[in-house]
Recover the amino acids of this structure.
C-alpha cells in the first residue's frame, strides 16, 4: 500500500468515528505579544524554577520599590515564545504572601501541634548541627538522611545538599519518585535521553501528545502544536485517561483505561506492519530486531487492544492510519502514562512506533520525552562526587514512610534514620503511603529540620523550621528537560532580611560540622554557577547575564539519530535488556533491579503488573495534576485555591447512578493502604470504572485531614524504581455521615 501524507477517502469512515475537531478555544495565560513594561519599571530576565519540563524563560517587571510586578514569558525565547502558565504569571502573589515564613522557629510543643518559638539563625543552625552530631555519635553517620527534591530545579540551590551528604557520609538519596519509569523506558529504546528538537512540534503535520495534560501543565507544548495546526493544517492527537483540557484541544482524543497505553501502541504498530505503513528499509538499518517485532505483534490486533484499552476498534484503526499516512509525526511523550507499575514498558512501546514508521527521518518527526542528556553539564564539584562512598546506603525517596517506620528493606538492612534536613520538598503531603509517612515523622526520636518558604505539612512536623528564599532572590543556573536551553536565573530582588538561601544553610552547616575545607565549599552561588559552567566548557555567568540562555540542541542528524542510536550497536532496541540495560538513574548495584522485573516482556507488549480492578476494588484511581497547582507548590496562594475550589473526585454518571451517588455527595474511598472521605464531582469526562482526583491539595484541605496519597503505594516500578502514583485500585461507597 503506498504511503501518503494524508488519509485517503477509503479511510475517512474510520476517522468519522473519532472526535476529529477541537472543541474549545485555548485559555492561554500570557499572550505571545505581551505588552511592554511601563517606563517606571525595569525588566529582569530569569527562568522558572519549578518542577516542569518547560523551564520557561521569564521576563519579570521590577518596580521602583524593588518589588516584582508582572511576570511573563520571554518573547525572544524560541521555545517559551512569550507564553507561560497563569500560576507563574501571578508569582508576586506567592512572593509576597502574608503567610510566607520569615524567621527561624523552634518547636515548643508536641510534634504537629503548631507551637513555635522564634529564634536566631545562629541558634537554629547550631541546634541542627548539634542534633546531627549526636545522631552520628549514637547511630553512625548513616542515621542522618538529607532529603530534597524539585521544589527548585536550580542546580546550585537544589543540589548543594549532596555535597554536605558526601562530605559527612550521610545516607544516600535515591531520587526515584517522578522520572524513573519514563526515563528508563525511553532510554532502553534509544540508549539516551534526548530527541528531536522540541521546536519541531511547530513544523510538523501531526503531534501526538501522549500522557501529559499540556494545556494545564506544559502550555508551551500547545503553543508549538497549535502553530503547526494554524500554519500547516497539522492534526493534534491527545491520548490520556480522561477528557482533560488538552483532550478538548485535540483533533483526535483517545481516552484509554489507566495502564493500557502499551496495548494501544502495539496495535498501532500491528496495523503499520499489516497495511504497509512500516518503513522496513529504515528498520533494517536502525533497529535491532524488526522481524522479531513483526512476528510478536501478529496477535496484537486492534480488536485485542480494544478489549484492553476501552477504545473502539474504529478509534484504534483511525489512529494507526493517521500515523501511517503522516510521515512527519512528532510523538510528545509525557510522564503521566508512565506513573503506572508498567510505566517503563508503556514508554518503550510508545517510542517504538516512531521507529516502525521511520518517523525519526523527518523534520517534525520522531519521539521526544526529555532532552536531559544534551546539556552535558558537570556537577561533580557542586555535588561533592569526589567524596562519594559507594558503600554508604541509598534510601529510596519514594519509600520515606517505610524507612521512617523501620522497614528493614527500605533501610537496606541497616540502622534507623534519626535526623533529617529537608529542602525543596514536602513529603508529608506528596509522598505515597501517607499514613506511614506521618507515623514516621511523629517519632519522638527523629530530629527534623525543614528549610521552607511556607509552613507546609512537613514543616509542621519539624523540630526546627528555617525560612528559604524564592527564585528571584538568589543566583542559580537551570537546564530544561522539555526544551533545549540552559538558562541563567540571576538574583533580581533582595530577599526579606531574615530569609536565607539553600546554599547558605549548607555552607553554614558545613562549618559547624567541620567539613567546610572539603572540595566545593566556600563559594557563593554566583561563584558556583561559574565553576559549573567552566567545568562544562560553557560560557560563564557574565555571558549568560547578557545573553540569558544557551541553546544546546544537537545537530539534526544527532537529534534524529540519523548517525545511529546511542546503544553500542547503534540500533533502536525493540528488545530491551530490562535488567542490565541503560537508564539515567539506576538504583545502586547493591540494590539491583526492582519490582517484578522478571515479568517485563521481551518486545513491546501490554503487561498487567498494574493494580487491576477486582470485585473488592472495582475502580481505578489516578491522582492527576491540577491546572493551578504544581505538586504541592501554589496550593498556598489564594487565587490558585479559588480557581481549584476544593478537593473532589471525578466520577462517571453511570457509576454514580449505580451507587445512588449525587453530585457533591461525600464518599469514602479506600484500599489496603487506607481510606479517606472526599466530595464527588459527577462528569462524563471520566469513563466508567475510572476515578480522577485532580491536584495535590494539602492534607488539611480534605474533610478529615487526610489527602489522596493515603491511597498511593510505594512499591517500586520495575525495573529501576519510581512511584506508581496513578495506579491504584480502590473501593468506593457513599458516606453515611
Amino acid at each position: 500500500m503506498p504511503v501518503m501524507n494524508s488519509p485517503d477517502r477509503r479511510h475517512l469512515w474510520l476517522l468519522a468515528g473519532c472526535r476529529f475537531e477541537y472543541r474549545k478555544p485555548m485559555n492561554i495565560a500570557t499572550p505571545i505579544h505581551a505588552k511592554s513594561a511601563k517606563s517606571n519599571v525595569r525588566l529582569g530576565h530569569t527562568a522558572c524554577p519549578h518542577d516542569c519540563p518547560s523551564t520557561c524563560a521569564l521576563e519579570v517587571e521590577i518596580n521602583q520599590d524593588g518589588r516584582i510586578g508582572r511576570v511573563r514569558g520571554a518573547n525572544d525565547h524560541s521555545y517559551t515564545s512569550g507564553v507561560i502558565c497563569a500560576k507563574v504569571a501571578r508569582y508576586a502573589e506567592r512572593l509576597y504572601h502574608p503567610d510566607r515564613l520569615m524567621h527561624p522557629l523552634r518547636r515548643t510543643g508536641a510534634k504537629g501541634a503548631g507551637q513555635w518559638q522564634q529564634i536566631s539563625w545562629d541558634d537554629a543552625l547550631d541546634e541542627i548541627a548539634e542534633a546531627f552530631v549526636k545522631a552520628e555519635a549514637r547511630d553512625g553517620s548513616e542515621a542522618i538522611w538529607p532529603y530534597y527534591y524539585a521544589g527548585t530545579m536550580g542546580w546550585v540551590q537544589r543540589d548543594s545538599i549532596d555535597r554536605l551528604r558526601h562530605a559527612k557520609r550521610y545516607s544516600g538519596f535515591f531520587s526515584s519518585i517522578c522520572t524513573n519509569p519514563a526515563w528508563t523506558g525511553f532510554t532502553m529504546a534509544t540508549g539516551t535521553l534526548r530527541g528531536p528538537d522540541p521546536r519541531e512540534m511547530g513544523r510538523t503535520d501531526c503531534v501526538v501528545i501522549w500522557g501529559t495534560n499540556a494545556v494545564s501543565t506544559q502550555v508551551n507544548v500547545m503553543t508549538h502544536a497549535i502553530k503547526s495546526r494554524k500554519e500547516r493544517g497539522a492534526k493534534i492527537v491527545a491520548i490520556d485517561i480522561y477528557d482533560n483540557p488538552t483532550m478538548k484541544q485535540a483533533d483526535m482524543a483517545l481516552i484509554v483505561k489507566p495502564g493500557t497505553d502499551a496495548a494501544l501502541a502495539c496495535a498501532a504498530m500491528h496495523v503499520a506492519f499489516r497495511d504497509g505503513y512500516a518503513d522496513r528499509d529504515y528498520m533494517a538499518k536502525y533497529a535491532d530486531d524488526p522481524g522479531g517485532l513483526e512476528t510478536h505483534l501478529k496477535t496484537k490486533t486492534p480488536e485485542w487492544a480494544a478489549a484492553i484499552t476501552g477504545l473502539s476498534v474504529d478509534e484504534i484503526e483511525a489512529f494507526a492510519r493517521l500515523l501511517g499516512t503522516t510521515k512527519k509525526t512528532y510523538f510528545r511523550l509525557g510522564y503521566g502514562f508512565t506513573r503506572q507499575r508498567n510505566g517503563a514498558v508503556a514508554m518503550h512501546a510508545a517510542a517504538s512506533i516512531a521507529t516502525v514508521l521511520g518517523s525519526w527521518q523527518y523534520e517534525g518527526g520522531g519521539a521526544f520525552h526529555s532532552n536531559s542528556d544534551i546539556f552535558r553539564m558537570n556537577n561533580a564539584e557542586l555535588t561533592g562526587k569526589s567524596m562519594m562512598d559507594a558503600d554508604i546506603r541509598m534510601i529510596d525517596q519514594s519509600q520515606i514512610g517505610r524507612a521512617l517506620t523501620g522497614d528493614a528493606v527500605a533501610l537496606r538492612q541497616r540502622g534507623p534514620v534519626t535526623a533529617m534536613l529537608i529542602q525543596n520538598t514536602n513529603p508529608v503531603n506528596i509522598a505515597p503511603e501517607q499514613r506511614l509517612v506521618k507515623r514516621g515523622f511523629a517519632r519522638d526520636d527523629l530530629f527534623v529540620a525543614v528549610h521552607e518558604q511556607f509552613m507546609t505539612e512537613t514543616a509542621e512536623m519539624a523540630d526546627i523550621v528555617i525560612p528559604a528564599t524564592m527564585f528571584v532572590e538568589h543566583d542559580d543556573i537551570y537546564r530544561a528537560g522539555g526544551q533545549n536551553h540552559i538558562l541563567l536565573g540571576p538574583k533580581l530582588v533582595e530577599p526579606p532580611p531574615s530569609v536565607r538561601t539553600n546554599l547558605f544553610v549548607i555552607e553554614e552547616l558545613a562549618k559547624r560540622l567541620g567539613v567546610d575545607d572539603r572540595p566545593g565549599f566556600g563559594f557563593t552561588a554566583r561563584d558556583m554557577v561559574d565553576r559549573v559552567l567552566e567545568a562544562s566548557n560553557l560560557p560563564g555567568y557574565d555571558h549568560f547575564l547578557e545573553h540569558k540562555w544557551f541553546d544546546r540542541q544537537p545537530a539534526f542528524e544527532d537529534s534524529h539519530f540519523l548517525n545511529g542510536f546511542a546503544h553500542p550497536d547503534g540500533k533502536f532496541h525493540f528488545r530491551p535488556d530490562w535488567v542490565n540495560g541503560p537508564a539515567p538513574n539506576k538504583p545502586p548495584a547493591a540494590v539491583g533491579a526492582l519490582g517484578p522485573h522478571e515479568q517485563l516482556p521481551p518486545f513491546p507488549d501490554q503487561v498487567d503488573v498494574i493494580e487491576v480492578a477486582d470485585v473488592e476494588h472495582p475502580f481505578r484511581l489516578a491522582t492527576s495534576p491540577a491546572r493551578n497547582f504544581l505538586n504541592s507548590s501554589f496550593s498556598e496562594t489564594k487565587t490558585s485555591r479559588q480557581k481549584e475550589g476544593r478537593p473532589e473526585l471525578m466520577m462517571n454518571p453511570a457509576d454514580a447512578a449505580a451507587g445512588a451517588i449525587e453530585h457533591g455527595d461525600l464518599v469514602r474511598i479506600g484500599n489496603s493502604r487506607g481510606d479517606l472521605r472526599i466530595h464527588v464531582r459527577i462528569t462524563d469526562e471520566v469513563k466508567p470504572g475510572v476515578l480522577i482526583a485532580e491536584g495535590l491539595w494539602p492534607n488539611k484541605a480534605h474533610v478529615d485531614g487526610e489527602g489522596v496519597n493515603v491511597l498511593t503505594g510505594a512499591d517500586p516500578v520495575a525495573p529501576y524504581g519510581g512511584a506508581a502514583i496513578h495506579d491504584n485500585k480502590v473501593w468506593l461507597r457513599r458516606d453515611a455521615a
